Amino acid sequence: MKTQKTAPPNSLDAYWMPFTANRAFKAVPRMVVGAKGMHYLTADGRRVLDATSGLYCVNAGHANPHIVSAIQKAAATLDYAPAFQFGHPQAFELAHRLQAIAPGDLDHVFYASSGSEAIDTALKVALSYHRRRGEGHRTRFIGRERGYHGVGFGGISVGGMSPNRKVYGNMLSGVDHLPTTYVRDKQAFSAGEPEWGAHLADELERIIGLHDPSNIAGVIVEPVAGSTGCLPPPKGYLERLRSITDAHGILLIFDEVITAFGRLGHAFASDRYGIAPDMIAFAKGLTNGAVPMSGVLVRAGIYEVHMDGPEHLPELYHGFTYSGHPLATAAALAALDVYADEGLFERAKQNEALFAQTMLSLRDLPGVLDIRPIGMMCGIDLAPANRTVGARGFAIMDRAFHELDLYIRVGADTLIVAPPLIAIADDIEQIRNKLAVAIAQTA
Ligand code: PLP
């Protein structure tokens, strides 16, 4: 039976909001209507300081004029180009620009629109690559506890955040998880990569031994786990993952959906660690968040091994209607210009120490359990209020927005600070001071 559609056009009812407490939001909405630079704007004229770059994506600040005009021009020139069997010049230009800044010999790019699609693309490319090389028995993947790789079935299978997995059944078969690298007792209040924990990479040898390397397609990790609360890798940990995967012919996939495009002071986190993985999934900062776009950079050889078979047939049966969308490529090319012209990756590097010091100055406030700054991102763990997980985090997010003119992303009782890379010292100080009030108010 059809339900009667009586809601007025401005009702909040029909929209089922993602990763949102829908009922709480609709009771007291946190609505933004505009954005410029470091701020969101509300309908009642408030300027709300953006402490998390939207969702880690607006690295160059909101409404950058160069990016805005590139998108406007693209919309008026070529609104859509078929992604399959046809192309448009900017999609190729962007691939070259990305190849030029990618680490090592990662030299081909596959486009998608979201981080989740990029991750599932990377997993499928890994399977296809091994099969093309006559090693189709390599089908297993290894992810990590507390990893977040989006919400596709591939991504939640290799991901390690229980709430995102628990109601979705079996998922991909043949997946193991490395232990999380975060152990608070050993690492609390470290700035940057903690000293303790590199040995946790050796768990990979154990898992590989259990299944035999010949059955393993790839290992996937975020260089810094983002959504689970900003967990920097222990010193030497990623390097060990690289040498173990290399030794066994296993592909190493870095999920750089958050860490690419300056968040850690480099084009890619891989550069910070001097490691070339076999694939890098990226998204978010690519277009400064202005148009959805993501992709996967693959190492030399992964593309080439596919280039056989009949020339009139696709070499990979995979792709999206919006792969390489003209508005997205225009936004991405413009964002890369802005990052280079304004030296934003270097700026992130220069601001890292100040940012870390400023965030760590919150450590003596009530119920602060840990603060983990790295690059221009930081997780702040708080003791839950009245032992109710998430209530304090929610209260801080809500009050910060309504009472302190601060936008902050939270996950349970962890605050995620990751301001646009254009932030100046005063912005960082303001974020800190507003957070100090919110943390104290909810103690
Ligand atoms: N991978 C990582 C590391 C992420 O942080 C995210 C999103 O936050 C994703 C994948 C999924 O991206 P999307 O939400 O665009 O699908």
Structure explained in plain terms:
The chain is of the alpha/beta class and 443 residues long. The chain has two domains: 22-60 and 343-441, Aspartate Aminotransferase, domain 1 (Alpha-Beta Complex); 67-341, Type I PLP-dependent aspartate aminotransferase-like (Major domain) (Aspartate Aminotransferase, domain 2). The chain is 35% helix and 16% strand. The chain is built from 15 helices and 15 strands. The strands form three sheets. The chain has a seven-stranded mixed β-sheet with strand order 4-10-9-8-7-5-6, with helices on both faces. The protein has a four-stranded mixed β-sheet with strand order 1-2-3-13. Helix 13 (344-360) runs parallel beside helix 15 (425-441) and helix 14 crosses helix 15. It is globular, with a radius of gyration of 22 Å. The relative contact order is 0.16. The model has no long low-confidence stretch (mean pLDDT 97). Pyridoxal-5'-phosphate is lined by residues 55, 114-116, 119, 148-150, 222, 226-227, 255, 257-258, 283.
Q: What's a concise summary of this model?
A:
The protein has 443 residues and is an alpha/beta fold.
Layout of secondary structure:
Elements: H1 22-27, E1 34-36, E2 39-41, E3 47-50, H2 53-56, H3 65-77, H4 89-101, E4 106-112, H5 115-132, E5 140-144, H6 153-158, H7 162-165, E6 175-178, H8 184-187, H9 203-211, E7 216-221, H10 237-247, E8 251-255, H11 269-273, E9 279-282, E10 294-299, H12 326-341, H13 344-360, E11 368-374, E12 377-382, H14 391-404, E13 406-407, E14 409-411, E15 414-417, H15 425-441
Parallel strand pairs: 3-13, 5-6, 5-7, 7-8, 8-9
Antiparallel strand pairs: 1-2, 2-3, 4-10, 9-10, 11-12, 12-15, 14-15
Helix pairs in contact: 3-12, 4-12, 13-15, 14-15
The protein binds pyridoxal-5'-phosphate.
